[in-house]
Write a structure and sequence with these properties.
single chain; about 575 residues; mainly alpha; 2 domains; six-stranded parallel β-sheet; 25 helices; globular
């Protein structure tokens, strides 16, 4: 019997090539994403050899977009965003504006239309969620203040891009493009935009009021059955059906539907399990998406337009980075934070590809523009790991040679110094607590209930501001800097409590503290059993590890209960 094997050929060749080049990229310590894009380029119609079916690839890419956006929604944390909102919200919006403006100026200089320039600029302004999370995770920065600011910044960028994806089809004609097939072009453009925003608002309201309750309820019901397959199917069905339903009922993009599906799944008590169960499937379709994007790329542009590519890479890696760094320093965060955020955003990824594909479908972008965006992504993602590696040496160089940078870092910052009205009693025999996370907060609250004097050193400026409004002595900055510990009056402190953090930072803080106050007692919260063992061997302070302490407390409780049982009179 005859077989229609186009899809199978595409999957076999696409996955095979993605495996080979993904492996090569990983061996070269590059994101595998680069390998997937190159795999797509090799099997594209623009290169000799095996040619994949581009129509099928586009349909698979649509699924890839849905699952990518579903993953973005699952990573979206409103609480994380609110923690850093004062810097992430204005910073991301201003940085998008700067990068978009740079892209528009350059592309209009090339003779492009306003609509093309706008989409092109927007495509260069948004960083890749996949690349950023991996880069921060590999360096153990995800839970740090710098990591939270970078992720919060990215979340705002993602939200802006989601809004752009929703509004672009409605404004395509106004920008000089054409409407998508099946769209009513007879009505006014403003009515179209108004109806689009109304539909989006209706969809968001539906998801937040009904979906937020219904989806977790269904997941809970299925989880009780104890079937792993059914649970995975429920999560996948929720992602795909909500994405399609948003398009069919509300007329909004499938990408937005998938994003909100991820958000409501995250609200469930089973969100971690849902993330683990669907991760392989999401990654498979993400790979297909990147392969299909690579299939659209024409390598000839590397020879034909090298200066254009250089300009694009410069906007992404220099323009965006400097804008982000300037904004972080403006908000009076330290140079280390500025460099981390700048490095995090010095690349573009999946949202850029989605925007470029939509721009092409709406007649707002040319294949040349799409190729430039893809080339910019390839180079920026490849070089991003080197930029991260350069953070420490650049920071050292700046601090050693630049007096201006040192002034910028701490100059005139009221939160970097304890206020004059702080009671002098707090500055002698106090407990200095480094970090006001889950552990630091509980210790501080317990001590303050017992009227024990506490001074808190915390990197997050917003937390410090909040603490000061509550009348709690707090100072902003990295505790690895001597100035921060001096401001916390470590030289007169009785105890130093260090919240879980990187062991190198712990060493640095303890060394500075011992120099300023040789008699100080040090208590350290370890993040792992191995870390606790290392600290004990080095004898730099008293170590507490969560699981050990829990086991001790439970053991004491059990022994007390047994003792009470033995003491009670026999019946």
């Amino acid at each position: 019997m005859p077989h229609d094997v186009n899809l199978i050929i595409l999957l076999a060749v696409g996955f095979g090539m993605a495996l080979i080049f993904g492996y090569i990229a990983a061996r070269l310590r590059l994101p595998p994403l680069i390998g997937y894009l190159i795999a797509g380029i090799i099997i594209s119609p623009n290169t000799p050899g095996v040619v994949g079916d581009i129509q099928l690839a586009n349909q698979l890419a649509e699924l890839g977009v849905m699952f990518l956006m579903f993953g973005v929604g699952m990573h979206f944390s409103l609480s994380d965003l609110l923690q850093v909102r004062r810097i992430a919200l204005p910073g991301a919006i201003l940085q998008i504006a700067v990068a978009t403006l740079l892209g528009m100026v350059v592309s209009m200089f090339w003779g492009w239309s306003f609509g093309s320039a706008l989409i092109f600029g927007l495509s260069l302004s948004c960083a890749s969620t996949v690349v950023l999370l991996k880069a921060l995770g590999d360096r153990g920065l995800l839970d740090s203040v710098n990591g939270k600011i970078a992720v919060g910044w990215l979340l705002v960028e993602d939200l802006v891009m989601v809004l752009a994806l929703v509004l672009l089809p409605a404004t395509a004609v106004l920008l000089g493009g054409h409407a998508l097939p099946g769209t009513d072009t007879s009505q006014s453009i403003w009515i179209t935009i108004g109806l689009t925003l109304l539909k989006v608002t209706g969809f968001i309201a539906f998801m937040l009021i009904i979906g937020k309750r219904l989806v977790p309820m269904i997941m809970q019901f299925v989880a009780r059955l104890g079937s792993r397959e059914l649970f995975t199917l429920t999560v996948v069905a929720a992602a795909v059906s909500i994405a399609y339903g948003s398009y069919a009922v509300f007329g909004v993009s499938m990408a937005l539907g998938a994003f909100f599906a991820g958000m409501v799944v995250k609200e469930s008590d089973f969100s971690h399990r849902a993330e683990e169960e669907t991760l392989p499937l999401r990654e498979i379709f993400a790979i297909l998406f990147f392969v299909s994007v690579g299939m659209l790329f024409d390598p000839r542009i590397l020879v034909e337009e090298p200066l254009h590519i250089l300009a694009v890479v410069a906007i992404i890696m220099v323009g965006k980075t400097l804008a982000a760094m300037a904004l972080v320093l403006f908000f009076r965060y330290p140079i280390n934070t500025a460099l981390t955020v700048g490095a995090s955003l010095a690349q573009i990824g999946e949202f850029s590809f989605i925007l470029a594909t939509l721009g092409l479908a709406l007649g707002l972008l040319t294949p040349e523009a799409q190729n430039l965006i893809l080339a910019g992504a390839l180079f920026s993602i490849t070089l991003n790991s080197f930029i991260f590696s350069a953070i420490e040496p650049v920071q050292r160089w700046i601090r050693e040679r630049s007096h201006l940078a040192r002034l910028l870092e701490r100059s005139g910052d009221p939160l970097a110094m304890l206020p004059d009205e702080v009671d002098q009693e707090y500055l002698r025999d106090q407990v200095v607590i480094i970090g006001y996370g889950g552990v630091g907060r509980r210790i501080s609250e317990n001590l303050m209930e017992q009227n024990i004097k506490v001074v808190i050193a915390e990197e997050n400026r917003e937390i410090v501001e909040k603490l000061r409004t509550q009348g709690i002595a707090a100072v902003s900055g990295e505790a690895t800097e001597p100035n921060v510990l001096i401001q916390a009056h470590i030289q007169h402190a009785r105890l130093l409590v260090i919240s879980p953090m990187d062991i190198l930072d712990i060493h640095r803080i303890v060394d500075i503290s011992k120099q300023l106050n040789p008699e100080i007692q040090v208590l350290i919260c370890a993040e792992s059993k191995e870390e606790a063992a290392v600290i004990r061997e080095e004898n730099i302070g008293e170590v507490f590890y969560a699981k050990e302490e829990m086991a001790k407390n439970m053991s004491h409780h059990i022994l007390n209960q047994i003792e009470l049982a033995h003491q009670s009179p026999a019946h």
